[in-house]
Amino acid sequence: MIACGALGGHIREIAARRGWPVEVHALPAGLHNTPGRIGPAAERLAVSLRRSGRTVALAYADCGTYGELDDLCRRLGLRRLPGAHCYDVFAGPDRIEAALAAEPGTYLLTDFLLRSFRRSVIEPLGLDRHPELWDDYFRHYRRLVWLAQAPDPVLSARAEEVASMFGLPLTVLVVGTGRLERELQSLVGDPNRPAPAGAAGSGAG
């Protein structure tokens, strides 16, 4: 399983719990800042893994590649997670579409993005060196929506901290990892072991 680094931890947990014989090869989550590099990196790894006799799937949504991952899947006969981005994978495209329709100026957060906000956002945008650029990047946002996979007091405090950086209200949607698990099950091919809808952390998909 070639995974987005932002999903790798969740995928390892799910695969271990479900007893799937899956190796997770996570590409750096920072590739999202340069999505044109995702397809080539995934292709190099996929070709290498297939040469060693492994069956390969992509634990990526489109993630800003504008169809490049779909082209890769067609050329190599691979499958990927559905959706435009990891927000769709966690919450479902309908919920994301509804959230953005209700407030187009919505900044979406996940557990991973909260934990890595400085590394994933502040530093790549140069805001640690030039904080005066904050408004240039973010002045059009009106609210933050945290798509929470496994909220806890530490992450909740971090979410409030990030919201205070923006000076915007925070909405929390507990989505869990159930939808991700069901889509991974389809990639792995485990039809006889359905994902338990009521399992802890499965959330609403």
What is the element layout, followed by pairings?
Blueprint lengths: L1 E3 L3 H11 L6 E3 L10 H14 L6 E2 L8 H9 L9 H6 L1 H10 L3 E5 H5 L1 H6 L11 H5 L4 E6 L4 H14 L3 E5 L3 H11 L17
Parallel strand pairs: 1-2, 1-3, 4-5, 5-6
Helix pairs in contact: 2-3
Number of domains: 2
Extended strand count: 6
Q: CATH topology of the largest domain, what is it called?
A: Oxidized Rhodanese, domain 1
Q: What is the helix/strand order?
A: EHEHEHHHEHHHEHEH
The level of helicity is 40-55%
Shape: globular
Written overview of the protein:
This protein is α/β, with parallel strands linked by helices and about 200 residues long. The protein folds into two domains: about 1-85, no CATH class; about 85-175, Oxidized Rhodanese, domain 1 (3-Layer(aba) Sandwich). The chain contains ten helices and six strands; from the N terminus they run E-H-E-H-E-H-H-H-E-H-H-H-E-H-E-H. The chain has helices at about 10-20, 40-50, 70-75, 85-90, 95-100, 110-115, 115-120, 135-140, 155-165, 180-190, and strands at about 1-5, 25, 60, 105-110, 145-150, 170-175. It has a three-stranded parallel β-sheet with strand order 2-1-3, covered by helices on one side. A three-stranded parallel β-sheet has the order 4-5-6. The chain is globular and about 50 Å long. It starts with a strand and ends in a 17-residue tail after the last helix. Residues about 195-205 have low confidence and may be disordered.
